Amino acid sequence: MDTTMQAKSSADREMNEAMMHMTRTMDSTKMTGDADRDFMVMMIPHHQAAIDMAKIELRNGKRPLVKTLAHNIIDAQAREIKLMHSWLRQWYGNASG
User: Is the pTM of this model over 0.70?
Assistant: First the structure.
């Protein structure tokens, strides 16, 4: 197998692992019926998966425009995760709701 295929396979595996981790986390989240809380608690692992996949792109990607997008995703999603954690602490007493 050539190096390009190995890198692609590695990136594919990492992307799949990030998605599976997100799915496991979201599947194990107890919903409360509070739409605001449930939305934030579900969005945090979704955003974290986007960050994880963007980091995989930065390690493995080749196109500068896609790498720029990955950096932007990391910055935006990290800010939103921080905001949601702050609101969960403020309104529900802890960062996980």
Answer: yes
Residue 8 has pLDDT above 70, yes or no: no
* DSSP of the chain: --HHHHHHHHHHHHHHHHHHHHHHHHHTPPP-S-HHHHHHHHHHHHHHHHHHHHHHHHHH---HHHHHHHHHHHHHHHHHHHHHHHHHHHHHSSTT-
Summarised one tens digit per residue, pLDDT across range 31-46 is 999 999 999 999 999 9
> What CATH number does residue 75 fall under?
1.20.1260.10
